[in-house]
Specification:
The chain is α+β, with helices and mostly antiparallel strands and about 80 residues long. The chain is about 25% helix and about 10% strand. The chain starts with 5 loop residues before the first strand and ends in a 17-residue tail after the last helix.
């Protein structure tokens, strides 16, 4: 899936950058609130780093080394 910023004017969505697609290709257009349009975007690598830090901060020691592989067993 490709996500592209743009604007909507005169009933037409205009991408802010050149994109490749084919005629008739289905798309999803999501309208965002204007106050969020000016928010700086997070660089992809920074987003993964932030998620890794969040996961580490929320981790709980269970004492079960194989919990992820045997989660059904421990329910």
């Amino acid at each position: 899936m490709l996500s592209v910023k743009g604007t909507f004017q005169n009933g037409v969505a205009q991408p802010a950058e050149s994109i490749q697609g084919r005629d008739g290709q289905p798309v999803i257009i999501t309208f965002i609130e204007e106050n969020t349009a000016d928010m700086p975007s997070v660089v992809e690598g920074e987003a993964w780093d932030a998620m890794a830090k969040l996961v580490a901060a929320c981790a709980v020691e269970t004492g079960i080394p194989d919990l992820a592989h045997q989660h059904d067993h421990y329910q």
